[in-house]
């Protein structure tokens, strides 16, 4: 069974708007990673945040991590139609084992 | 650098057959992990190999096995295929996978359909 939960399960916004996705996990982690997946293809790595970090930025992406609440959020600013995809959080616990959330399907309407 | 490659990309098998999938990690990466993705169960960890040894294993039956070669390439094998094994199988590689700081890079996946 999966450790993580993500909400919302689906999100539909207009181009230019911001999109926020949330993720929760259950046990202590080494790091948390966010991935994007287009139409059942491979996972594209977006950003990694370590357990001792609280916030990280990469381009239009902003990730926060709250280890006390065992939660993380991904913010995509000024969204584009090309951002339409499924987004997954993955917590790394032991070694390089990733436990994935259920994913958020983001649709950005032009 | 070339990314993670997986072969074949698509595969159709019938129940009871066996299948072998291949993964070539990014050059210099020594850790290779395998994941199964299905609509019902989502993304689930199968196993991880490092330096030709299985270092971590998920909760899958013994029909699922793998190995890693000295050049870090990895194969996974599924014997006695069942309909429920139909899935996208993803391979990920990282340098060593123990520091908690490393990104895991995924391949495009092998889509397996069991009829």
Please explain how this structure is put together.
The complex is a heterodimer of chains A (110) and B (115). With 110 residues, chain A is an all-beta fold. In chain A, 0% of the residues lie in helices and 56% in strands. Chain A has no helices and 11 strands. In chain A, strands 2, 4, 5, 9, 10 and 11 form a 6-stranded mixed sheet that branches. A 5-stranded antiparallel sheet of chain A has the order 1-3-8-7-6, with no helix packed on it. In chain A, strand 7 and strand 8 form a beta hairpin. The termini of chain A are far apart. The model of chain A has no long low-confidence stretch (mean pLDDT 92). Chain B has 115 residues and is mainly beta. Chain B is 0% helix and 52% strand. In chain B, strands 2, 4, 5, 6, 9, 10 and 11 form a 7-stranded mixed sheet that branches. Chain B has a 4-stranded antiparallel sheet with strand order 1-3-8-7, with no helix packed on it. The model of chain B has no long low-confidence stretch (mean pLDDT 93). The chains are: A mainly beta (110), B mainly beta (115). At the A-B interface, strand 4, strand 5, strand 9 and strand 10 of A face strand 4, strand 5, strand 9 and strand 10 of B.
Summarize the structure in short.
The complex is a heterodimer of chains A (110) and B (115). Chain A is built from no helices and 11 strands.
